[in-house]
Every structure is written in structure tokens, then in C-alpha cells.
Design goal:
Rossmann fold, 285 residues, 2 domains, seven-stranded parallel β-sheet, 17 strands, 11 helices, alpha/beta, three-stranded antiparallel β-sheet
């Protein structure tokens, strides 16, 4: 999103404003969602709904206008003409539900991703349903080392006695992922040949995730990998959620099931992201 953190709190702001202030990313995502629904947002109405000052919302509108995501007007903002506003996904579906959704596309994407891996490589696997589908195909892959913060992936591959490595730290129970400062510090010391990342959404601004904690490990994979590959089916295009993980320029390749179009396609081209369209996975009888 436009700013990773809020400006310093003014001493003149009411105390209730300081106590109840929402993260800037969440405020701006709310604004974008309201704009997508109605085509116009009012500063006064958004400020009242989010229990923040009108000045805070005006600063958010300035940031969003700088990104080209709205046009400020007297008292509010409108959507830019001819643009499609991204959808904001508030809640993270359960893992089992996500695994069932768009499964055919995920199988195709996993097959394409598998072709990028060579023996004796160090492979980083992010948490998520798309990376889990890829992990299932790695069970019989020879001579690779897999590093992941997903307990599900580690358990799946561990049954096949692969070289699988988990960081220490805290467990985010709903996602079964390792997170926290210890996990970040341990993987920050490593270097991976290739990293496969998942996302909750992809827009021209970058790719997104539901979790603040898991996003920190995603950024480690981006910093510590020679090749960064995003696995994202087309159903997630022009969707965003709570956390913007990074901009499009941080990834080398997008593997998906349909070619991006419009503003997203332009932004990916400008960021020099290679796009691979996965062929439909074969169905065994």
C-alpha cells in the first residue's frame, strides 16, 4: 500500500483517536473497497466509520491518489475513469477450503513450477495451498533440500524422508506456519536457489497476504533467493487483503493459469516479470 506506517501522532489529536487508530494499510484497503462498491467515498463518512480524524483520511487519499488509485474531489474521492478497483478480501478462508478452491488450476501451476527445479538445489516453499500442491509433487524429486515455514509441507515431505528444514519460532495455529523473530532470523542466514511464494491477491501495486506474521517470512524468501517465483491463479487477480507483501518488481516470474489483462498486465510488463501460463494438468484415469 501507499505507506507502511502512519505519520507520527499529533499531540493535538484527541486521545481516543490515538487509542483506536487503525493500521494505515487497513484504512486504505477499506477506502479502496468502498470506492469499488460505490465509485465515491466521503472523507467525513469514512472517518466516522473508522473512528479516526478527517485529517487522517485526507492523508490516506493523498497517498492513494499518488498511486493512481483514486481522484480526490471536494470532500472525498472518486474512482479513476476506466479503471477496475481491486476487491478487498477481509477474512482468510480455512486452509482446507482454500485447497479445494481452484484446485485444477493449482495442479497445473504446480506442474509448471516443478519444471524450474533441478537436482541438488535449495528450494524455499512458502505457506499456502498452492505451495502445498507443489510440495506433494516434490516428494519423489531427487537430491534437493527444502526449506519451509509450513508445518503441513514439512510433514508431507518428511514422510518421504526428504531433506526438509523448518525454522524455530512461534506456530500460527490456523495456518500451521512457523513465524516470529526467531524464524525470520534463522532463515535470514540462508541462501536459496529458488523460492516459490503464494499470495492472497495480486494487483498492479504488488502481491498481498492475510497475515502480518507470514508476510515477514515471505519477505525473507524474497531477500534470500536467487530466483523468486509467485504461484497465483487468475481468481486472485485484482484482489488485495490486509498486508501488501511487496511490489511486483521483487519477483522474477509469475506462474498462473490465465494471462493477466489490463492494468495488471501493464504493471507486470513494466516490472519485467516473466509470465508463464500453466497448461491444464493431465487427469489420470
Amino acid at each position: 500500500m501507499a505507506t507502511p506506517s502512519d505519520p507520527p501522532v499529533s499531540l493535538t489529536e484527541p486521545r481516543s483517536e490515538v487509542v483506536r487508530r487503525m493500521p494505515g494499510e487497513l484504512r486504505q484497503a477499506h477506502i479502496v473497497e468502498q470506492l469499488r462498491k460505490s465509485g465515491f467515498v466521503s472523507v467525513a463518512e469514512v472517518a466516522a466509520a473508522l473512528a479516526v480524524s478527517e485529517m487522517t483520511i485526507r492523508r490516506d487519499l493523498i497517498d492513494l491518489e499518488a498511486e493512481g488509485r483514486l481522484i480526490r474531489t471536494h470532500g472525498g474521492a472518486i474512482a479513476p475513469e476506466g479503471t477496475t478497483m481491486p476487491a478487498f478480501d477481509r477474512e482468510e478462508p480455512a486452509f482446507e477450503q482454500r485447497l479445494r478452491q481452484n484446485n485444477f488450476a493449482k495442479e497445473s501451476i504446480a506442474s509448471e513450477a516443478l519444471s524450474l527445479i533441478s537436482p541438488r538445489q535449495t528450494v524455499a516453499l512458502d505457506v499456502g495451498s498452492s505451495t502445498f500442491v507443489l510440495a506433494a509433487r516434490l516428494a519423489s524429486f531427487p537430491s534437493i533440500k527444502v526449506f519451509t515455514n509450513s508445518l503441513r509441507i514439512a510433514t508431507l515431505l518428511g514422510r518421504e524422508r526428504r531433506d526438509v528444514y523448518l525454522p524455530g519460532g512461534e506456530v500460527r495455529g490456523d495456518e500451521m506456519s512457523m513465524c516470529g523473530p526467531t524464524a525470520v532470523a534463522q532463515f535470514e542466514q540462508l541462501w536459496f536457489d529458488i523460492a516459490f511464494l503464494g499470495a492472497s491477491g495480486l494487483t498492479k501495486a504488488g502481491f498481498f497476504d492475510y497475515s502480518l506474521e507470514d508476510s515477514e517470512l515471505k519477505r525473507v524468501y524474497l531477500r534470500r533467493s536467487s530466483r523468486k517465483v509467485l504461484l497465483c491463479n487468475a481468481a486472485k487477480f485484482n484482489h488485495l487483503s490486509l498486508v501488501q507483501v511487496a511490489g511486483l518488481e521483487t519477483i522474477d516470474m509469475l506462474i498462473t493459469d490465465q494471462a493477466p489483462v489490463g492494468d495488471l498486465a501493464v504493471a507486470l510488463a513494466e516490472a519485467n516479470v516473466e509470465i508463464r501460463i500453466a497448461r491444464p494438468a493431465s487427469i489420470s484415469s
